[in-house]
Amino acid sequence: MKEKNKFRKFINDIHLWLGLIAGIVLFIVCLSGSIYVFRSDIEYFVNPNKYNASDFNNNSPYLPIEKLVATLEKTENGKVSFIEIPENREKNILFGLSKKTTPVNNKIKSKGDENIQPKRQRPTTYYVNPYSGKIAGKDGDKASEFFMIVMKLHRFLLLDPSIGRPIIGISTLIFILLSISGLILWFPKKFKYWKRWNHWKPGFKIKFKARWKRINHDLHNTLGFYSLFLLLLMAITGLCWSFEWYKNGLGKIMGSEVFAGRNEKPLTLKNTSDQTISFEEVERIVNQQLPYKGDVRINIPKDSAHAYSISKSKSGIFAIAAPDKMNLNPYNGEIISLDLFKDKPLNVQIVSLIKPLHIGDIMGTFSKVLYFICCLIGTSLPVTGIIIWFNKMKKKK
């Protein structure tokens, strides 16, 4: 019996000191995560005109998307790299625009420097009214800037990424140990009581009629148990952004590269032409091949020798965040390849869902609500845990 008590005390000490070490960082990470879950919803609430087409009419067709592309490229002096056509015709169309920048040093230092092409920055998303052609907004407004700060706080504490990212990663590893040790402490103290429901019952409910110390203990113990699975899932997937070795190792274990889509290159076409099919025709082909409600994203290659890379995601409250993809010949509308999520092996499906599993949009609005609640609980755990420790120290004195 004494050996078991020593083991429990050892686990309790680990749980305590690891919590004190990483508590502040975990508080910041969970709080920023709970805010970031509803980023798109909050941005829509703050600036609905950016997303809604003001001239919407059921009988009004879109302006030709080619015309919208040409106007945007001319007005903003850039090159459109993607087009996102929403399933809801009351919404504005999204255009990703890469603006041209001139080299920092215009002096030619050696032969061949005169052929240096202007560098392209990360595309800026523009929201364009498809009925009037007017730009309704773009990324970089106050709401977008606020959530960019929240994201940087969540990922590297607003520090230099080389410093902040490992701090977040180490704290996340500590959180995983805290979760395991906390689960062990949640179980009834003695093994012989595991068959008795009255010894399990306190771990499933909060006794609000008790004193504040007991309520605080129950808030930490019970809420921590209920949110354990999702918080662990967030931690395990979040490490992919903190450590390269973890990301690569997880990919090898799962048998599929993590974030493989980042390295995908557009397919090269054998035969090209001077005339491409319209984007309306591209959308029609996609919807014919993938006949369900969803948003269509067309990635436009930098040159005319490559195919369009297209993805379509289902829309709805319980829609899973797993797009179907295809490569399309922009000159004759031929489907070169079709990659359906349902046909992928289970391991590939899991790996491809790491980002939505981490940020909470894996099952649309339904999963966002669950993630938001669990993140708030995760924010409270360092606070209630420190109060428990403080009360114990006070009692000893």
Automatic annotation (TrEMBL):
Record keywords, A-Z: Membrane, Transmembrane, Transmembrane helix
Domain of life of the organism encoding this protein: Bacteria
Record-annotated membrane-spanning stretches: 16-38, 167-187, 223-246, 369-390
A Pfam family assignment: PepSY_TM
Name assigned to this protein: PepSY domain-containing protein
Organism per entry: Apibacter muscae
